[in-house]
Amino acid sequence: MAKRVVIALGGNAILRPNQEATFDNQMHNIKMSAELIAKIEKLDYEIVVTHGNGPQVGNILRQNEEAKAFVPQMPLDVCSAESQGFIGYMMEQSLKNALHEEELTSSVLTLLTQTEVSPDDPAFDNPTKPIGVFYSEDEAELLSEEKGWVMMEDAGRGYRRVVPSPQPQKIHGVESILKLLKQNTIVIAGGGGGIPVVRNKIGQISGIEAVIDKDRTGKKLAEQLDADVFMMLTDVSNVYINYGKPNQEKLEEISVLKAKQYLDEGQFADGSMGPKMEAAIDFALQGKKAIICSLDQAAEALSGFAGTRIVNI
Ligand SMILES: Nc1ncnc2c1ncn2[C@@H]1O[C@H](COP(=O)(O)OP(=O)(O)O)[C@@H](O)[C@H]1O
Ligand SMILES: NC(=O)OP(=O)(O)O
């Protein structure tokens, strides 16, 4: 029986640092990512792909705000849906072309996905999710004064606007995804962490303004789909201890216990590798395999020859 993998694509798969978010740049990167995912399809896995949307949803929100004198402004959950739609469109098209090139017969389908969060999540009072483009410290101060944006320094790369990022509690559409997987379809779902929604006391759902972390959603999706493997594809080949120091050490296959020990020691930076390792540990604790590796080594890592693999041994 084919194994099932949920793949969370890191920012680089869509837009590289310092690149402008033009259609051409994003399409070019997505095409290259699709070719690498097609390699995984050759390994006979059922594949679900999720992806980030930080730069894109920030830009859509900004477009809305700048044009509000002419066109009604949409809330952040609608911007999230828009980003999921356009990235999904580019990814589905690119994947279809890559599969065709490889003479593979699988279909590809994008599901506009809603993710339930709690309205009481403390994240609503503490925005931490960076979106949109980078600014200098001076620009950030000005934007914060003029527009009331909450700005934060993002991993030494500059300042970005931040919005609330609640924990995903339940991802919608999982039964349909399972059916599609059984019909030889690669499913793109939960893009941008999914459109954030809350459920009220009488069971009705409605959108809420936030951006959910795609690695957290990826892990939740992998759990709900009972996937064998959860993979986070990023811009480093491996997770390291003492990262960036002369004594940095590459992690290959490690136990959950060891990973937890390193996490507690603060080896993995908040806002980048930290949340990825937390998601990996949570998933591996259920007796499954979590992998963190670079996009170009994804197929090798799945076969056990590359990346950092976290297992419950
Ligand atoms: N211990 C570590 N090992 C490897 N990378 C780390 C570590 N701590 C922080 N990082 C950083 O994490 C980054 C990946 O996280 P992030 O930028 O959030 O990924 P993505 O956008 O691909 O989801 C790497 O580029 C690296 O600079
Ligand atoms: N939604 C999300 O996690 O996007 P990024 O990965 O682009 O930050």
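^ adenosine-5'-diphosphate complex. The mean pLDDT is 96. The chain is about 35% helix and 25% strand.
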